[in-house]
Structures are given as C-alpha cells and as structure tokens.
Amino acid sequence: MSSAMIDRILDAVIDTFYLVICSGLIGIALGIIMGVALYVTRENRIMAMPVLNRVISLIVNVGRSVPFIILMLALAPFTRWLVGSYIGTTAALVPLSIAAIPFVARLVEGALNEVPHGLIEAAESMGATPWQIITRVLLPEARGGLITAATITIIALIGYSAMAGAIGAGGLGAVAYNYGYSRYNPMVMLVTVLIMVIMVQGVQMLGDFFVHRSRHR
Amino acid sequence: MIRLENVTRVYGQGAKAVTALKDVNLEVAAGSITGVIGVSGAGKSTLIRCVNLLERPTRGRVFVAGQELTTMNKTELRKARHGIGMIFQHFNLLESRTVRGNIGLPLELIGTPRREIDQRIDELLELTGLNERASAYPAALSGGQKQRVAIARALASNPQALLCDEATSALDPQTTSAILALLRDINQRLGLTILLITHEMEVVRTICDQVALISGGALVETAPVGDFFTRPATEEGRVFLNDFLQLAPSNTLLQRMSDSSKDTGLPVVRLVFRGQALSSELMTHLEQHFGIRLRILQARVENIQGRTLGLMIAEFDGGRDTLGAAMDHLHTLDVQTEVLGHVQRHD
Fold it and tell me: Going from the N-terminus, what domains does chain B have, and what CATH number goes with each?
C-alpha cells in the first residue's frame, strides 16, 4: 500500500471519528430528551399526557422505520437549508444526528422502564417535583441502561457513517467504497474493514467498562 | 394528627369499577402508633397511600397535622409531603447513591444547604445505628440495614408523621424485632406519629397503641391494642385473633377425644384468661369448692401492652355434677370456656 493511501486512510479515520462523535453527541442529547418525554408522558406516569405521548411515539416510529440511506436523501433539502450544502462531511452530520434521535429515544425509554416504580413513589412521597424525579431518580438510576444505549447508538452510527460516504461525507466507508470496491484494491478493503471492527470493539469495551463502573452491586 | 373522613377509593369505572376503600374513618392521635391490619387485598395499601395522596381518594377528606390534603394544589401537597415520611416493604432506596446520599435526598429536594444536610445525615446515621455503613451502596446492605436507611431517609426532613407500608414484611423475624424496636424508639424519642399497615398480628402487638382492622375495604373495628387482643368486638376481629393465638388441640388430643365417649370421659375445656393469668388460688378454689382438678394439656400466655392473655386446654377431672357451677364461677371471673370434647381418664 502506498504512503498516499495510508494518509488517505488516516484522514478517513479522523473523518469517521468526527462524524460519529458529533452526530453521537447531538443524537444522544436530543434522544435522551425525547426518551424521557416518551417515558414521563405515558398514562399514569409523573407527567401523564397520553395524547402528546402518542404523537411523540408516532414520530419516533416513523423516524425509525425509514432506512438511513433513504432518510439521508430525503433530508437533503433540510440539510442544505441548515448547513448550506447537502454534500460533504459536515452535511452528513445532519441525517446522522436525526437518525440517531428516535433510535436513542426508544433505548432510553426502555432503560427508564427498568427503574423500579417504587423509587418514583418514594420520591413522590418526599414531595419531589417531576423535574427532580427525572434528574435525581430516573436518570441516575438508569445510568447503566443509558450507557448501554449510548454504546449501541455509537456503534450503529459507525455503520451509518460509512453509508454517508455516498453523499461525499468522507470517512472509512468512502475509502472502502471508492478504493477498495470501485478500484478493486482488496488490501484497502481489508484494512478499512479491520479498522472499523477495531473501532466497534473498542466502543463496546469502553461501554461495558462504564456500565460496570456505574453498577454499585 | 392523621384523620381520614369517609375516604372511598374506587378503581375503574362503570361495570368494571372496584371499590378498594369504603367510607373509611380513622383518627391517629399525635404521638401514637396505629396499625391497620388485614389480609392481602383488604385495601391496606390503598389506605396508607391515600394518607399522603400517592393515591387520590375518590371521595372523602384527608387531614394531616391539621391541614386538609385533599383540597391542596400540587405545590401545597408537595410541601405537606415534606412533613410526612414514608417507608416501604421493599425499601425503595436509590441503588446509585450511597447510604449518605439516600438519607440526604429529601433535604436536597427542599434545597437545604449542603453543610446542614451533612450535619443532619450524621445525626440520622447515629440515630439508626448506621455509622459504619455510611458510604456503602444499598446493594451491599442487608434487608434490615436497608430499612434503617429508609427510616433515616424518611426522618431527614423532620416529619411529624411516618407512614410504614408493610415495612417489616420482607424481613426475617429477628430483623423485624430490631426494626420495630427502632420505630418504637423513634416514636418515643421524637414524639413521631406512626401509621403502619401490616398483615402480621405480631407487629401490631409489639408496637401499636391502636389497631384498625380492615376487611373488604372497610374498617370493621378500631380499638386500643390491649382491648382488641383480649376482647375483639367483631367476628372478623375474633377470626384474626384466633389465627394469631392458635391454640388448637394437638393431634394426639384430637385422637384421644374421638376415641372417648361423652358419658364416661372427662371434659376437655379450652380456657381463655384475659387480664390475669391462671392463679394457683383459682386452681385451689376449683378443687376445694367444686372437687375439680385441672390437668393442663396445652397452654400459652401472652403479654399484650401490659395485659395478660392466657390460653389453656385442660382436662377437668372429678366433680361431674359440679362442672356447670365451676364453669359459671369461671365466667364470673371473666374466663371464657369452651368444651372441646372428652377423653378417657388416664390411669
């Protein structure tokens, strides 16, 4: 492999990191908000608003049922409006983040569902406000589940970011496609795939480590 | 301190409606311990949750410390809840916080300064005997320790009333005793009013001043504990008491009774003494005046809030003709008698 190719791959690694970290942060932050909203607005919950709950739930389901490659193309006008272009690495952040939100929301809702109802009841008996219950009981108690959710999301985004290569996002996916596949360079294909496997493995291990540390048992 | 007026709680609507509480009236005096006892599904849990409005009564009014909770808005209610502690069967501690963190939680909620919180936590660790475990996480604690943390947490904001929802039901008998002793201690030291629900007569007997029996969502009997255990006023009360006081004839005795005839055998009598134990004077009296010797087959004596309750199964030997008069004499002494059967004389 030429040194130019090695540089290209290193640049791609940096692009992939950039894509995954930025869209991960945005997607996870907004996804947590949406997941909490899904949880608390359910019937008989601390901020029960069944109609709103159904609306959010529908949005999440729609978001999750559109394949990422389609979502990316469908969002092109919105992306251009937001960042000025629908091509390029930064432009790819928009569909990546948006795809992550409903994904995270469902995972967060699931993690919150695991918090025993008794804890919420105990907090209510102490006179906690709904906001205090969310910030002091629900989120801290669901920490393990939330870290797991973040881990799964980051890994999914590593996969999605490769697809984003199709709209010129750069990153390992683009290198694998342009040089490994189109120009039939099996070495490039192998190396890029290996790097992605290592990245996924690393994220998973990091996630497991933090989940383990968050469990006090 | 706590007063429920005609509290009714209905779940569901129309044909599917289930009435969990029916017109419950209950008054818990300041500084006293009241136990609500009943079988599973009788409405105990609903009742205690109606006191701090974790469940909103369908009808009726709830007063705590002179304030009516049922007319309050959310903000007022939250404020009132700071004055009502609650502990639970399954402790409901936050796994993500240490013992200190759990105890301090109610104070964080009301915005107490950190220094004061830490000071208060130290006091409560001392009170509940948890000094050693201050920085442990709940997962590392035993059931009894967890309930101590929950008690400390419930007391953090200096409440006037404490609600205990089956607080000892998940604990073994020794731990139960220790927790009950702690509750009694807190009640006496701090003058804290306690309302507890339980299905165990032992709990009521050990620490309660007043008992309320709940059955099918209605309070059927409310009485001082000493009265309830010696003289329940209702049939439901008697059933509950008999279950607790289990003094049933042994299998051997039942066998002997079934083998014997009424005409030739000696009567086997179950005696219930209230407020006094069987004295040797009484035994002597029965022998001298009625020619009856008591042979005790089974017996049990309980002390409930300073009052003695004795149960005995005895053979009445001799004085076939005077048996009726002897029974009458026992009745005048407030001893309840019941002839269970007859056995052949042992020779």
Answer: 2-243 (3.40.50.300), 251-343 (3.30.70.260)
CA geometry: angle at B122 spanning B116 and B123, to 5°? 90
Instruction: Write out the two tokens for A67.
Output: 């394949």
pLDDT of residue B278: 67
Q: Sort A101 into a burial class: Cβ within 10 Å, 0-12 / 13-18 / 19+.
A: buried
- Is the model's pLDDT at B154 over the cut of 90? yes
| Terminal alpha carbon distance of chain A | 49
Nearest Cα to Cα of residue B219 among B71, B96, B46, B103: B46
HEC per residue, B9-70: EEECCHHHCEEEEEEEEEEECCCCEEEEECCCCCCHHHHHHHHCCCCCCCEEEEEECCEECC
C-alpha closest to that of B297 among B247, B333, B336, B337? B247
Q: Which of residues 162-181 of B touch A (CB under 8 A)?
A: 163
Size of interface A-B (CB pairs under 8 A): 68
Evaluate whether B204 touches B176 at the Cβ level (below 8 Å): no
Q: Which among A194, A198, A160 has a CA at the least distance from the CA of A186? A: A194
**Spatial contact of B28 and B193, defined as CB atoms under 8 Å apart:** yes
The contacts of residue A12 (CB under 8 Å, 6+ apart) are: A170, A171, A172, A174, A175, A192
What is the C-alpha R_g of chain A? Answer: 20
The ipTM, to two decimals, is 0.86
Chain A: closest CA distance from residue B134 (Å): 14
Chain B CB contacts of A122 below 8 Å:
86, 88, 92
Cα-only R_g, chain B: 25
Q: How many angstroms from the chain centroid is the CA of residue B224? A: 11
pLDDT tens column, A17-31 = 999 999 999 999 999
Q: What chain A residue is nearest to B107 in terms of C-alpha separation? A: A126
Distance (Å) of CA B241 to CA A28, B232, B306 = 59, 8, 17
| The two three-digit tokens of residue A142, written as one number | 């669901």
Nearest Cα of chain A lies from the Cα of B139 at a distance, in angstroms, of 5
Res. B275: pLDDT tops 90: no
A-chain residue closest to B92, CA distance = A119
Domains contained in chain A, CATH given: 3-214 (1.10.3720.10)
Contact A20, A154 (CB under 8 A): yes
Q: How many residues does chain A have?
A: 217
Phi, psi of B317 (to 5 degrees): -100, 125
pTM of the model: 0.86
- Closest by Cβ to A216, choosing from B80, B137, B153: B137
Provide the total of helices (H) and of strands (E) in chain B, helices listed first.
12, 14
Mean pLDDT of A85-91: 86
Residue (of B41, B72, B76) closest to B57 by Cα position: B72
SS3 assignment, position A148: helix
CA nearest to A136 within chain B: B105
Predicted pLDDT at A175: 87
